[in-house]
Amino acid sequence: MMSVCRFPLRVWFASRPLSTSVVLAICMLQSALANDQELTDDDAAPRINMDILKPEQWDEIDTAIDRGLQFLIQHQRRDGAFEANDPGQPAITSLAVMAILSSGEEPGQGPYANQLKRGIDYAINVQQADGLLAFRGADPVLNLTTLYNHGITGLMLGEVYGMSGTGDQDKLRTAVNKALKYSRRMQTQAKRSPGDKGGWRYLRRIGPNDSDLSATSWQLMFYRSAMNAGFDVPVEYIQEAMGYVHRNFDENVNAFVYAQQPGKDRERYPSGGSVGGGIIALAMAGEHRSPSVLQSADWILAHPFDDYNRREHPEDRYHYSAYYCSQAMYQVGGHHWERFYPDFVRVLLDNQNPDGSWDPESNPNDRYAGNVYTTALVVLALTPPFQGLPIYQR
Q1: Model's pTM, two decimal places?
Q2: Partner of 107 for a Cys bridge, out of 164, 312, 327, 382, CB 3.0 to 4.6 A?
């Protein structure tokens, strides 16, 4: 099996001189020349096999991504935001920006440079005086989405800062530093249960849990992205968050669960978002082959995405889970990735709409977010092999 090289895909997208199959062939050749042996370290992730799809299938993915990106840029507003209502902003704009970057683009370069700059500026302009990257208001949905907005947008800004050499670095640095302070304040708020220490959830308490793995995974990725980009993120911040992630592995289901306490809404359950988020969190700390990671990857294989826009648990979200699980399985690699990605890709490609979008989430609680949100998530789910975003590089 070959590892994916970091071929400058932005050149391919900017001028289109090569097909995806040619790019991947170059990657595999470079890998074959550089690596004539398999990894033997039990703690290291196996190399990624790129032969799981035929060249024409990689070209289909190329086309689907292009169509998805065209849909996204057609739904960017004059203020730079990608279409969504306030409870979904600026996270949905940030997901759209990361979707473009995941295809191989870079800030300040290429055919989407203007769209990227406008989206990034919008996200920064939303930031509140205390560092919060989200709107405040009376809408009760804002209580549920605010810290998701903050974590996702912080992740995007950290990635952009690490990838960019433009004149916006001072503005980005200021925004990320303020956002890190806000994240830490929310992380260290008093928790009713010791098991919730180190995690995040909502602005105001709902139910028995003060942390959940879905919200915590985004905040942890923000920390890691900022650290990778050179920001001062004390290791204890990450260790405390990792402690919460580890505590959310449930041996009864052999997977990461959403929250510590069951509650009246059955919050102690595994979903694609919690299982994938847990794997990603541990993989970023170098745990690609720990028992909890491998058992959670087995759970993903046992709960595939064959039935488009439908999941078994009523609180699971199809596209949200697709994003998390695809990134997670790429990190695990080996037979887990090989068994997961081909069928997963086929379902997503078969269900892309004529305008390049994917349907809104079928879960009624998330339909408000629309299909800019789901389209950005699917592009991110399709692009792990391209290694466009530093946070997900193996």
Answers
A1: 0.89
A2: 164
